[in-house]
Specification:
- It is a single chain.
- The chain has 14 helices and 23 strands.
- It has about 625 residues and is of the alpha+beta class.
- It has a domain of about 210 residues.
- A hairpin with a 2-residue loop joins strand 5 and strand 6.
- Helix 1 packs antiparallel against helix 5, helix 1 packs across helix 6 and helix 4 packs across helix 5.
- The protein starts with 18 loop residues before the first helix and ends in a 12-residue tail after the last helix.
- The N terminus is likely disordered.
- One of its GO terms (cellular component) is cytosol.
Amino acid sequence: MAERARTRSGERSVNGADPVLVEIVEGTLASVEKEVETAIARTARSPMIRDAHDFRAGIHDVRLRKLTGRSYSALVQPVVRDFPVAGMNPGDVFFHNDVYLSEGGIGHLPDLCVTVPVFHDGAVVAFVQAFGHHDDIGGAVPGSMPSHARSVFEEGLMVPPIKLWDRGVPNRAALTIMTRNSRMPDSLAGDLDAECSACLMGARRLGELFDRYGREAVEDCFDAIISKTTETFRRELLARIPEGTHVWEDYAEHDGVDEPRLHTQRMTLTVDHSAEVPLVIDFTGTSPQAKGPINHAGDYADGVFLKKWLAPILRNLAETPERMAELDVNEGVVPLIEMRFPEKGTLLTPIFPAPTNARTFVILRLLGVLAGVLAKATGGRMPADQETIRYTGVYGDDAGGTPYLMREVLGGGSGGRWYADGEDTIHVVPDSRNIPVEFAESRWPFRVERLGLAQDSGGPGLYRGGLGYDKHLRMLRDASFMSIADRSILSCWGVNGGRAGRPFVVEIEGREMEGLVDDSPVRAGEVIRVRTTGGGGWGSPLERDPALVAADVRDGKVSAEGARDDYGVVLHGSRDDLRVDAEATALRRAELRALLPARAPFFDRGPGFPSLSGGLPYAEVDFM
């Protein structure tokens, strides 16, 4: 064990690290991570990176452990696998985007990852890393996300770990190959330069920390930071899950190739508080890999990426929402979770070269599967289902004949919680945002005629699901529409009596689009109407305070028809002077309660589920 750091009084702390220095180091790590992300946002060129903020940064120690928890990040494992630490030099920058050679840290080819080693006294002591979703890396369609891909070779240029900068000198040949394969070469070059420069800056900042306090003291602090997370999660969060085995599953609805069907993601959670590893997550029962691009290569490096990806859901078990917001996720969660994967050839264990560009249909659905299985285990003390990432956009030529690509990641509603309504138009990717209307209209040939909340999209409940977006684009030139989106048939589920939210819908002049679209033509003058998903509701809507329902109607979040049909609340008067008819409301709620089944499932999946399940209104695992 490393020699313990001395406190300012000269005494050694009992846990191996000076507690004051631990706070300093932890704050410095968070500051460096934030500074790296800020530098990228200010210097990148593409709207996806600069404006939508679809990128992340992270700091890892020389043992490849993730130290920061504000944001998720990729992995350093594939870099050190191919480039031993002993051969690294100051000024080196490593690059990769190969899904199958990333140890599970990269989900699809547009996510380009750069890694910079941090040096102290001539030795590598840490790593600064960033990865972001770039405009285009080649492949069959603009944006490198072909919705009907049958092979990863259709999705773009694959780059295994390479040395992109050598001792501060960029590898021009590699950069030329990558930009030559991109439809947006200037954006790609600018974004990569931003990420490399920001990570090199972050490495210098982190090196100063080691210079100031010494390697041994700083690494003791790293150990303390990670250990604190391990013990906090074990003591405050995992202790709230009853021991035993709990099972649930959810589904992706289509893969872009086959007809829509239920692509199962099944999770068996076993909890044993006396075990060294108290949580075992078994994915046996997950469907075979899809022909289309919804697969996720998650079974590498013992699933270490998925452990950190799923762990934020556990924060919902915190005693209060305020405490939940204080908890970060770093490598400390890894020793608490064991992942058990089915054999090769499933949605989570695809075999190269299975396509993966729409892997959000699986990896984001897994967040909901864990939330669902924990809801069963805890009697509902988890939020209902939330929105997932969807990419929508248009591409074509502008008035000058120059090709353009507008792609946006619109958010949706989060699920109702046992203590509050869901949030409207949030995004599951930290710090991501929609593209500002003024910027979009000045850059691309369309007008934004509406950007507001999608009325009635949130699942009804004692605590209502959050609302999705309602956005209308009027095209000024002929173009092509593209979409990578699920929840266009299935809905975000409600829990504990709460109802499902409304699904994702896109219409072009009355023509309803599928969730996976590459090149649907849009004529000048036509309007694209996008409504994103609403979160599921929590608890029975017939128990919601009628005054809150009336407030939702006044705010335009719920229609008067929705108030009557979903909540059993009868209102009179104009929108500005609504009054609850107490007697009529009591009668209406009695009528709706009489229609409820004697034995209701714990989860409500919405009206789309029977269309894919052979008519079954719910799954076998939906009952408590």
